[in-house]
Every structure is written in C-alpha cells, then in structure tokens.
From TrEMBL:
Organism: Rhodococcus koreensis
This protein's UniProt keywords: Cytoplasm, Lipid biosynthesis, Lipid metabolism, NAD, NADP, Nucleotide-binding, Oxidoreductase, Phospholipid biosynthesis, Phospholipid metabolism
Gene giving rise to this polypeptide: gpsA
Protein name: Glycerol-3-phosphate dehydrogenase [NAD(P)+]
Role, per record: Catalyzes the reduction of the glycolytic intermediate dihydroxyacetone phosphate (DHAP) to sn-glycerol 3-phosphate (G3P), the key precursor for phospholipid synthesis.
A Pfam family the protein falls into: NAD_Gly3P_dh_C
Cell compartment(s), UniProt: Cytoplasm
Domain Glycerol-3-phosphate dehydrogenase NAD-dependent N-terminal per the UniProt entry, residue ranges: 7-159
Protein family per UniProt: Belongs to the NAD-dependent glycerol-3-phosphate dehydrogenase family.
Active-site annotation: K191 (proton acceptor)
Location, primary (coarse class): cytoplasm
Amino acid sequence: MARPVRVVVLGAGSWGTTVAGLAAHNTPTLLWARNSDTADEINTEHRNSRYLGERALPDSMRSTADLVEAAQEADVLVVGVPSHAVRSTLTQIANEVRAWVPVLSLAKGLEPGTRLRPTEVIAECLPGHPVGLLAGPNIAREIVDGLAAASVVATQDVRVATALQPLFASAVFRVYRNTDVLGCELGGVLKNIVAIASGMADGLDVGDNTRAMVLARGLAEMTRLGEAMGANPRTFAGLTGVGDLIATCMSPSSRNRRVGEFIARGMTVEEAVAKLGQVAEGVKTAPTVMELARDYNVDMPIAAEVEAVVAGRQTPEGAYRGLRKVAAGSEDEVA
Ligand SMILES: NC(=O)C1=CN([C@@H]2O[C@H](COP(=O)(O)OP(=O)(O)OC[C@H]3O[C@@H](n4cnc5c(N)ncnc54)[C@H](OP(=O)(O)O)[C@@H]3O)[C@@H](O)[C@H]2O)C=CC1
Ligand SMILES: O=C(CO)COP(=O)(O)O
C-alpha cells in the first residue's frame, strides 16, 4: 500500500499553524517553527499560544525547529513565512527538498527590493518544482475555530492543483482550484493595502458609505493593475479577489485593517505594527505596489494615499480629503 503524502509547513505563525492543522486532519503533517519553544508547545500541549491563544490543534500534528529535517520530509511543501522571509528560509534548504515536490505559498506580500511575488521567489530558490499558492478569505482564528470558509489552490498545471485540493479540504473548508496564479496571488497582496484604508475609515468614523466606496474603488484598482500585469480580470471577482478584500476590510481580526485603524486613532506606523506583534504585509508592500503602478502606468489613488500615510508623508485625515478630490470617470471602464 502506498504511504500517505507528507505535508510540511514552514512558519508557525497564525496562518502556517492553521494550514498545518487543516492538513493534519487529512494526512501526516509536520510544522517547522523557528522558535523551539513554539515547536515544543505544539508537540506537548497541542496549541500555539503566541499566535492562536488557547485554541486546540490536532493531536496528530507534529512540529520541529529543525528546518533541514522538515525540508527532507516533505512530499508537499507549504511556505507560510511572511514575504520578506521566503528567500532567506528557502535558501537554507535548497538542496534538501526532493525533486518535483510541489511548493505552495501562503504569503500575501511582495519581496522588498526585487518586487517579486512569493511564487516567483520560490521558483528562483527551488527551480524545477511545481509552484502555486493557497489563498482566499481565510482569517486564521476563524478557521481554527471551525467556522466554515473557502480557499483556492492556484497552480499553472491543473493536475497539480487537483492533487493538492483534498489535502487541505474539510467538511467546513472548501478548496477550489484556479490556473491564474498571477491573478490569485495579486488579489491577496493588493487587498491588504485597501484593508489599511478601510481601517483608517473605521478610525476616522467616516461612515459605511465611504468605506463601501473604498472597497469598491479599491477592487477597481486591484483589477486594473492585475490586468495590466497579465492577470485575468475575472479572477478579482472571485475568492482571492473580492472575497479576500471583503474579509480583510471588514474583519475586526485583520492585522492590516487594524494597523489602519491604529494609525487613524493617532499611533505612528511603528507603534501600530509593534502593538500588533504580528505581520501586516500591506505596510511593507504599499511602496512596492506604487512602483508597479508607475511602471504599468496604472492609476491607483487609494493605494497612493495609503502609501503616503505609511511613509509618514500624509495623515489619515489628509488621505481621506485627498480621496474626495479624485475625479469620477466612467464606472464601466475598469481599466
Ligand atoms: N493570519 C492569517 O489570517 C493569514 C495570513 N496570511 C499570510 O500568511 C503569511 C504568514 O502570516 P501569519 O502566519 O499570519 O504571520 P504571523 O505574524 O502570525 O507569523 C509569522 C511567522 O513567520 C515567522 N517569521 C517571521 N520572520 C521570519 C524570518 N525572517 N525567518 C523565518 N521565519 C520568520 C514567525 O516566527 P517567530 O514566531 O519566531 O517570530 C512566525 O512563525 C503572511 O504573508 C500573511 O499575509 C494569509 C492568509 C491568512
Ligand atoms: O489574508 C488574510 C485573510 O484572508 C489575513 O489578513 P491580515 O493579514 O490583515 O490579518
């Protein structure tokens, strides 16, 4: 009898731990934590208190602080560290992952400096491996709590995605597939910036109509840039686009939304990120996205105001005053 597929997840933050928990219900799963106390706590107490409080993790899920051991065990490798850490993590194990092992990214940011998407960084570090991503409206804590959700495995080769879907699926976690890797990945990256704007709206008490305008016009910006870069615009109407945008902009738990709210309530960006104690990818990604917008000649007024706020050149009040001055064109021209 063939042995079961072994899933290895790198990064024991809130989402890496959650995805490892999903996989552990289906197949043997090992989670790499860079902090050995975290690995010990998962193995002995079946929880990750730093990131997920007292929430119970599956007893069958194992954890290690040994990156090489983890890499060697993988039949499927899931990269769950933040975007800025993907390259440094994978460089250490480039010769340890067996050939043809599929690699899935969870990260929703861009690599500072290179502007590369996480799947592009993975392809550079682990050439020859099928590369894809798992993304969608997936607030980690809700999924650990067993609340229903859906996600998307995106790979260029539909056979790879079809093989990976059941590894993460459950009765309450539906996993779709998509071959538009670029569109799915950009959706997850770009919605974080709109979520910061949505959080600022909460902090400034600008009202729900304004917040809805930011979401709708933010989606138009995401779609414009995605299409200019070669993505299918329809992807932005799906789970990884508008789905993730709604979850992140509305959820009290979203770190990107909370950073925006903290700043609007008077904190500096540094104070807001420190108070969070977890990653908020949109803060680092905003300047990179504005570089892309300039390169592709795409108008992104909301992202521009968010970038100015996180760079300290603009106040949240000034950003919302700026957005009021945006000239209204024809709504049916998304591009
Ligand atoms: N949380 C969520 O709901 C979701 C998150 N995501 C995305 O998943 C990615 C990971 O996020 P999430 O798990 O939430 O982040 P967290 O902030 O919860 O955890 C980050 C994890 O990465 C580790 N880490 C941080 N820096 C490095 C580094 N330089 N080298 C190696 N490991 C490092 C941390 O280790 P340590 O604890 O030792 O600092 C920790 O395990 C992000 O791109 C995020 O946008 C996607 C969907 C949902
Ligand atoms: O991507 C997420 C939900 O899908 C998580 O968003 P935050 O990183 O803002 O918490």
